[in-house]
Amino acid sequence: MTALKTVRSRANPVFRSLRRLKESGRERRRESLAILDGAHLIEDYAVRSGAPKLLAVSANALAMPEIRTLLEKLGSVNTVVLEPQLFQEIAPVTTPSGILAVIPIPASRPTALDVDCCVLLEEIQDPGNLGAILRTAAAAGARQALLSKGCADAWSPRVMRGAMGAHHTLAICEHADLVEFARSYRGRVVAADARATTRIFDLDLRGPTAFAMGNEGAGLSVALLKAVHMRASIPMAPGVESLNVAAAAAICLFERVRQLKTGQ
Question: Which ranges of the chain would DSSP assign to H, the alpha helix?
Answer without folding.
Answer: 13-23, 25-31, 39-49, 65-73, 84-90, 127-139, 157-163, 178-184, 222-227, 245-262
